[in-house]
Amino acid sequence: MKFKLLYINTLLLLTTSLFAQNNIDVESKYIKLVDRLARHEKIKKAFSTIENLEPLTLKRHIELTETEAPPFKESNRAKLFSNYFNQIGMDSVWIDKEGNVLGLFKGRKGERTVALDAHLDTVFPEGTDVKVRVKNDTLFAPGIGDDTRGLAMLLTILETIKINRIQTKDNILFIGSVGEEGLGDLRGVKYLFRKGGPKIDSWIGIDGLSLEKITNKGLGSYRYRINFKGPGGHSWAAFGLANPHHALGEAISNFVTLANNFTSKGPKTTYNVGVISGGTSVNSVPFESSMLIDIRSIDPKRLDEMEIILKQTCHDALEHQNKIKRIGPNLTLEIEKIGNRPSGELSDKLPLIQKSLAASNLFGISPKLSRGSTNSNIPISLGIPSVTLAWGGKGGKAHSLGEWWINEDGHKAIQLALLILLSESGIE
C-alpha cells in the first residue's frame, strides 16, 4: 500500500500540536481521532480500494470531461453524473430545480448531514472541443482538472464506502453543483442554502490543485455590467452626438484613479475591467458601450465602498458627456450587479477545520489555511463549518484550452478527502 501513516508521537497526543507552517494549534483530541480512524480496519481496506479503483476513477474522469458543461448549460453532464450515482447504488438521487445533482447516503442516525461537493460547470462556451488528449502521462483538455477531477473523486469515495460497507452516523449529501464559474455567481449553492433548502450541517468542497491548501475563508466579490446607450449615427454626418464609448472610457479612467488610491491602503481589495464591448464600425458613433468589472475584497465593507466609487464615476462620466454633446438626445446609463459572492471567515478552532488539519498532517502534508472564491463562500458566510479541499495530482493552465493534469499520487487526495469526510460524519 502506498499510503503510509505517520503515527503521532505519544507526547504530542497528550498536548496541543503546533503546525509549523502557519502556527496553527491543533487540539490533541482531533489528532487522536483521525489517527484512530486511519487505523480502523475498514478504513485501511478503503484506502486500498481507492488505489485499486484508480483505472475506473480515471475512466469516469475522462468521460465527465468529454461531456460538455458550459455556463448555464450543465444538464448533459448532470445526467451523466446522476447516472453514475444510481449505478453505484446511492440511496436516493435527484436533480433539483436549479440543476444541481444530489445523492443522499443515509447515515445510521441521520441527525446531521455532511455535504460533499464538486461543481459540474466549466468556463468554456458551448461547442468547445473537450476531447481528452493523452500524451505520455499527461491528460490535456479544457476542464480536465477544474472540476471534473473533483466529480470523479466524489464517485470513487461513494463507491469505496459501498464496497467496504462503511456505515456512517450522519447522512452524507453528495453534490454535483451548477454555476460555480464566472457569471454563474454560485447559483447552485445559493439555491441549496435558500430558505426551505436541504438541511446541511457541514460542507466539504473539492476544488483546487494543491493538497497543502485548505480553504476556510471566503474571498468576497461584486461583479457589474455597465452599459452606456445612445442614438448612434455616422461619424461625420452625426458628429456631436453623445458617444457611449467616450463615456465608458471616461468612467474607466476616473474609476481607476479613485480605486487605485482607495486600494493602496487597508485590507486587500482588487478591481478589474475584464470585458469591453460595443460599436459596429470605425466610422459609426456606437449606440452602446459596455464593460464587465470584477471587484474583490477580504472585507465586505470595502466592497460596498468600491461600489459607491464605481457608481459615482459612471454617473459623473454620463453627466459630463451629456453636457458636452452638441446635438441629439442624452446618453443613458444602466448599472447591473451580476455577481455577489459573500466573504466570510471561519475560526480554525472549528472541529471540521481541526480534523482537516490533523488528517493532512497524518498524510505527511503541511497544511495551510487559505482564502478563496469557491462554492464554500456561501456556507462560510452563513457560519456553517466548511472547508474546500484539493483534487490533487499535478496540473496547470486552468481555464484555458491548454489545461492539463497528471495523475501523480492522485489517489492520495481521494484518501485524504475520505478520511476527513468520515471524521466529520462518524462511522459505526
Could you describe the 3D structure shown?
The protein has 428 residues and is an alpha+beta fold. It has helices at 10-13, 28-39, 41-52, 54-65, 75-88, 148-163, 187-192, 244-263, 300-324, 351-362, 377-381, 410-425, and strands at 17-19, 24-26, 92-95, 101-105, 113-119, 133-135, 138-140, 171-177, 202-206, 213-218, 220-229, 233-234, 269-278, 284-285, 288-297, 332-341, 344-345, 368-372, 386-389, 394-396, 404-406. It has two domains: 23-217 and 345-425, Zn peptidases (Aminopeptidase), CATH 3.40.630; 220-341, Alpha-Beta Plaits. It contains twelve helices and 21 strands. The strands form six sheets. It has a six-stranded mixed sheet with strand order 3-4-8-5-9-19, with helices on one face. Strands 6-7-21-20 form a four-stranded antiparallel sheet, with no helix packed on it. The chain has a four-stranded antiparallel sheet with strand order 13-15-11-16, covered by helices on one side. Helix 2 packs across helix 10, helix 4 runs antiparallel to helix 6 (148-163) and helix 8 packs antiparallel against helix 9.
